[in-house]
Structure formats: C-alpha cells, structure tokens
Amino acid sequence: RIDEHLGDLLDEGRNVVLMSDHGSNEIEQVFYINTWLEQNDYLSLETGTGGFLRSVGVTKERLARMVSALGLQRVARSLPERLAYLIPTGSGEFKRQAKTDVVGWADSRALASGQGPLYTGEGDDETASRLVEELPELTCPDGRPVARNLHQREDIYTGQYADEAPALVVD
Q1: Which of 23-32, 132-141, 143-152 has the lowest mean pLDDT?
Q2: Element (H, E) at 150
Q3: Stretch 7-15: mean pLDDT, rounded?
Q4: Please, are residues 165 and 157 in contact by the beta-carbon 8 Å criterion?
Q5: CA 160, 166, 168, 171 torsion: positive or negative?
Q6: In angstroms, rounded to a whole number, what is the distance separating the alpha carbons of residues 115 and 9?
C-alpha cells in the first residue's frame, strides 16, 4: 500500500524523502531480552496456541519458507492479520501487539520492550536491583557485553510521571 502511494506521489512529480525512525546501523548481534527474562524466571508467558505451535516446530520462518516454496505468497497475504499474532518466531518472539496478551501477569516480575525500556512491577526495587547486577554480566558469543549501558529510572527521568517510566533502559 505504501509503495502504491509513493508511486502516486512520484507520478505527480513530487519530491519524496524516505526516513527511518529505526536507525541506520547494521545489527551486529540480536538479543531477545524477553526470552532471557523468561528463561531466568522474571517473565511468565501463557503462550497458548503460539507456544504449542513453537513446541511442534511451527514458526514464522518455517512457514515463510514453505509458502515461498509452494508459491502461495498471494494467499498468505490475504489471511487475517490476527493469525500472524499467534505464530511465534523461531526464538519464541510474537508480534508486538500480542506480546502483552501472552504475559502471565500474576507470575511475572519484568517485561521489556525491544527498544530498551524494561519495566518491573510497581515498587519492585528488588527485581530492578537484581537486573542491574545480572544484565551487565551477559556477553555476546564474541565476548562483547550484550548491554553497552544500563540506565536506572531515577538517573534519566524526572517530573510528575517519572514513577511511570521504565525501571531500566538497556542500551
């Protein structure tokens, strides 16, 4: 849809500037922080259908290869988007909108956004303190730290709503 609209603008002789709000650096290492949080008992997921699909080997990557091999891309694009939310990636991640739908809130102490903010339960300073100790110890396969910096809420947020900010921001 976006390409069609861009084409219309170009056909009209308009200048078009494309920008990204996701940066332009090469991704050197991928770290799925919520997967790590789950493996270390900070996050509990009630994955239901998605968890079952992953356990039997059904992932977005495998489905994409199969759809491509069978030439079914057009059919796949016509399926309801809500189906995509149920299918996890190979690493267990779900589409962003479904992330909070699979959290077992009663048993979870932390949840992260892929962009760096890491939330803990209200007033859960103990969990934040443990994460401040544990996250800097994590390293990539080549020995580099997973987190270049770890910022605590009180070090970067001020104002009336600072207590609603994430407990930590991981860079």
Answers
A1: 23-32
A2: strand 150-152
A3: 88
A4: yes
A5: negative
A6: 32
Q: What is the pTM of this model?
A: 0.63
Residue keyed to tokens 């259908």 = 49
Amino acid at 85: Y
pLDDT at 58 over 90: no
Whether residue 39 contacts residue 33, with contact meaning beta carbons closer than 8 Å, is answered with: no
Separation of alpha carbons 7 and 5, rounded Å: 5
Which DSSP helix (H) or strand (E) runs through 120? strand 117-120
Whose CA is closest to 112, among 67, 159, 166, 161?
166
Can you read off the two tokens belonging to residue 72?
């079914």
* CB-facing half-sphere around the CA of 92: CA atoms within 13 A: 19
